[in-house]
Amino acid sequence: MTHIFDHLQISGYRGLRAINLSQLGPVNIFVGDNNSGKTSLLEAVSVLCNPLDPFQWLEVSQRRLYLGKTLIARPDLEAIQWIFQRRANFPDDESYQSKICITSSGSASIRKIEAELGEIYGVNLEKGQARSNDEITTSEDEIDSSELDSNSSGVELNVTACLDQEQGNLFSSDLEHRSEVFQFWEKERFVYRKRNKPLVKNATISPSYSSSEPILDRLSRIILQEEDRKKEVLDLIQPLFDDNIVDFEIASTSSARAAIYVRHKEIGFAPLYVFGDGFKRALVIALTLLTMTDGVLLIDEVETSIHVSALSSIFAWLIQACRYREIQLFVTTHSLEAIDAMLQPGINVDDIVAFRLKPKGQELQRFSGDLLHRLRSERGLDVR
User: What's the pTM value of the predicted model, to 2 decimals?
Assistant: First the structure.
């Protein structure tokens, strides 16, 4: 399986002061207490994959705020600010810096990103447009009293990405530097017509199934590109959830909006929302994986909504599919059953690495797949 990232060092992202992930594997499992930084770690990896796209930052910053349904057209400034560490959280730490820094090595070209956030102020001129401090004029002839009452505040995100096009070492002096500056204004729609391609293909699946890219879009691509892949999804879903499921189809509802329907032997042609969350969760994982190759898949709380009886089959398929499609997998879990399902017979434990995160900046623990397997199967230890 692929090693898009072999090593990651993350500092300044939310509560992650200095996380060092060495010898990453094709499958990486993150465990730890609540609030130890597992979700933050996945977010940092997703930002690293696409650092020069402002919508990646907006989506990450607001995912928790809206429980998976982000509203990036009108950015929430406080949510953006909270992905950066705050001095108040570490008042006695002389090494504190309000900067996100992530370095990496591996097959991907990205070697380092740095991001800083600053406050900006301006005046609304017309139709929601704002200017920075340097652009504001103070002549009474140019600004009337109504304009002076419409001061606007915002934040400015400065991002620099260092790329190694020759796949050299981390400290190569020939790194290409690319920088972008994004401004987000209070109560203003964010408009950005340029879209930078991701440096690394990536997708995130959060505990709320609706937080991934819309299911409809994923299924549409599968149907249009390769019908056999829809059969692969059905072959996974039918024995685990309901043998009476015959097909997935896209149809228009009474409001003329397209939606996913399930053709079922007993209940007929039924909308997806009438089925359980476990079914929808497995469907999201399958559709997301089958519409990407040679990338990074991030799954937060991988066991969510899936019954323990189905974990082994789903995870065996997941790891095999990631291997076939050259996808590096990062998952978080609170479940020993989920860990055991990934260590079942038939799965190469050499592909698996587990990291146990600890709170308050303590050094994390790394378990190779073989060690993890022995700790669970021979000693029955709780590695969480």
Answer: 0.84
